[in-house]
Amino acid sequence: MHSAQTQRLTRHALIYLVLIAGAAVMIMPFLWMISTSFKDMGEVRAWPPTWLPQHLDLSNYHDIWQQYPMLLFLWNGFVIASLTTLGTLISCSLAGFALAQLNFPGRSLLFLVVLSTLLLPYQVRMVPIFIEMSKLGWIDSFKPLIVPAFFGSAYGIFLMRQFFLGIPKELKEAAILDGATPFGVFWNIFLPLSKPALTALGIVAFVTSWNDLLAPMIFISTFEKMPIALALSFFKGQGEALWPWLMAASVISMLPLVVAYLAAQRWFIEGMTFTGLKQ
């Protein structure tokens, strides 16, 4: 018995050591970004580099706020990310419910087609998408970044479908016996029960849209319409990157994501846990 306990403790200790090492690797760039945002350019160029700034320099935050319309960039990013998240939640929840709970011909084939779109990266699709948006007259507007979200995403549909498969079908059958329509079942029963999955999907959609650089770079050309992810490219400069300004702007850009995750952390973890690989 003593030997078994020793082996179990050793195994747990090794697991925690691996997790701590992985967490350290993930958090080091984050800490370096914050530290660099408080340094001047001379200290950034210094060798060997220092983790902590010798002099706490707050001028980087003041300068970028004075030189660039950071509030406008943040607002553009918030509008795009919020509407994209709304469209993703509406379309993916409806499609996920249909693929999980409604019986219709070709349902499995349709789900397979939806999953197959995950194999096509955005770089493959961006040229035909740009041509389509150009014909619609949507270039240099928020529409190409927002409207596609209202037609669903493969990941979001898969996530919601897996969650809806875990809800007992007896609830749907009882509602149908009471005269509920399929949409009534979705709206009154499945949607209230899917708050964890909706929260998880909402956070993923918001973060993905907020950090997206490629799509705004393709569709947005007006300075005043650029979201924060695209605006960060201004701090690269013509030669050497303006690292203190870039890191300060990155910290400002990161704060809304941290607040959103901390506010919905419990539902996010619960949603990702409950959307297992159900058949």
Topology:
Elements: H1 2-36, H2 41-45, H3 59-67, H4 70-101, H5 107-116, H6 122-136, H7 143-146, H8 154-165, H9 169-177, H10 182-193, H11 195-211, H12 214-219, H13 228-231, H14 243-263, H15 265-274
Helix pairs in contact: 3-14, 4-8, 4-11, 5-8, 8-11, 9-10, 11-15
Describe the structure.
By secondary structure, the chain is mainly alpha-helical. It has 15 helices and no strands. The chain has a single domain, classed as MetI-like fold, CATH 1.10.3720.10. It is 72% helix and 0% strand. It is globular and about 75 Å long. The mean pLDDT is 84.
Provide the descriptors you would attach to this structure in a database record:
MetI-like fold; mainly alpha; 279 residues; 72% helix
Low-pLDDT regions = none
Described by strand count, sense and barrel closure, the largest sheet is: none
**What would CATH call the architecture?**
Orthogonal Bundle
CATH topology, by name, is: MetI-like fold
Query: How many angstroms separate the termini?
Result: 40 Å
What is the count of helical runs? Answer: 15
Assign a percent range to the helix content: over 70%
Q: What structural class should be given to the helix and strand makeup?
A: mainly alpha
Q: Report the count of strand segments.
A: 0
Number of structural domains? 1
Helix and strand string, N-terminal first? HHHHHHHHHHHHHHH
Mean pLDDT: 84
Q: Taking Cα atoms only, what radius of gyration do you get, to the nearest Å?
A: 24 Å
- For the record, the CATH class is Mainly Alpha
Percent of sequence in beta strands: under 5%
Dominant shape: globular
